[in-house]
Write a structure and sequence with these properties.
Tetratricopeptide repeat-containing protein, NLR-like
Length: 348
């Protein structure tokens, strides 16, 4: 249910399901452990990373005790906990856990098991998040090669791995290879999954972002507009992916210097994310930071600084001092204050 843009409702229903399973089946039944894992996932989707991590940690401990270190569900719990650590910005613990999970899955399931491929992809993504593209890109390339061999060119997982490799090329500034791969992935997803599949919409968004990164706003903006229109039609106004599409289009308008349309869209996205995801969701914090940046670009430093200050306070409280988002907002606030006070205003 969290995937339908209603994470708070998902938490309520999954909490009730967990309570029922504990009462009927007991604390240690595999179905009870599965319910606990699902509730943790709903908390993560709702941005409540503190409760998500606590629940994932409990589920992992219980699965180790009840099912054993090497049970596939235990390995899945270890992967999910690593994902939650990553979402919270604790990349050190996330990478350590991803590395352990990959090693265990290779040993228990084999090099070519789909779960092993997913672990390799997740570890590559964590390396990328930590800025270690030197380790991330070869791992993505290996995962894609193995997935093509094991699952085939058109398997949805293969398409995901191709999409992620394109993102890493983009992060490394290799826009030629990124755009080529994004275009291929979009073409393949349209053919395999259809025009309206959520993964196809994601590919269209990513290709637009690659065009934008290359400075080709003429191709990027129409693609963002198409993606938003399709996302509203297919997923609904309030789906998290629709909200992300709206945010991305606003950013493209801002890059094109159309601050009026950008600010209007940022304001709408922030209002919707607060309503749908809650005040403390990481995406809500990101929206608040982007809106503050647009105010700053428009010369409205008073509103920009106030919003940066609020976002920084919330980011420290929700994500912690060391989360990349917290560092970004702190830098943006310092820049805006320096600009207000007549200091240097170099591009951040």
């Amino acid at each position: 249910m969290d995937s339908q843009g209603q994470p708070a409702r998902a938490v309520t229903h999954l909490h009730r399901a967990l309570t029922d399973r504990v009462r009927v089946l007991g604390e240690d039944h595999p179905d009870t452990l599965a319910s606990r894992n699902n509730l943790a996932g709903a908390y993560r989707a709702a941005g409540d990373l503190g409760r998500a991590i606590e629940l994932y940690e409990q589920t992992l401990t219980d699965r180790v005790r009840v099912l054993g270190e090497d049970h596939p569900d235990t390995l899945a719990s270890r992967n999910n906990l690593a994902c939650a650590y990553e979402s919270a910005g604790d990349l050190g613990r996330a990478i350590e856990l991803y590395e352990q999970t990959l090693t265990d899955r290779v040993r228990v399931l084999g090099e070519d098991h789909p779960d092993t491929l997913i672990s390799r992809n997740n570890l590559a993504y964590a390396y990328e998040s930590a800025g270690d593209l030197g380790r991330a890109i070869p791992l993505y390339e290996q995962t894609l090669t193995d997935s093509v061999r094991v699952l085939g060119e058109d398997h949805p997982s293969t398409l995901i791995f191709r999409n992620n490799l394109a993102g890493a090329y983009r992060a490394a500034g290799d826009l030629g290879r990124a755009i080529e791969l994004d275009e291929q992935t979009l073409t393949d997803r349209v053919r395999v999954l259809g025009e309206d599949h959520p993964d196809t919409l994601t590919s269209r968004n990513n290709l637009a972002y690659a065009y934008q990164s290359a400075g080709d706003l003429g191709r990027a903006i129409p693609l963002y507009e198409q993606t938003l229109t399709d996302s509203v039609r297919v997923l609904g106004e309030d789906h998290p992916d629709t909200l992300a599409s709206r945010n991305n289009l606003a950013y493209a308008y801002e890059s094109a210097g159309d601050l009026g349309r950008a600010i209007e869209l940022y304001e709408q996205t922030l209002t919707d994310r607060v309503r749908v995801l809650g005040e403390d969701h990481p995406s809500t914090l990101a929206s608040r930071n982007r809106l503050a940046g647009a105010y700053e670009s428009a010369g409205d430093l008073g509103r920009a600084i106030e919003l940066y200050e609020q976002t920084l306070t919330d980011s420290v409280r929700v994500l912690g001092e060391d989360h990349p988002m917290t560092g970004t907002v702190r830098s943006n606030l310092a820049h805006a204050v320096a600009e207000r006070d007549g200091g240097e205003t170099g591009q951040l």
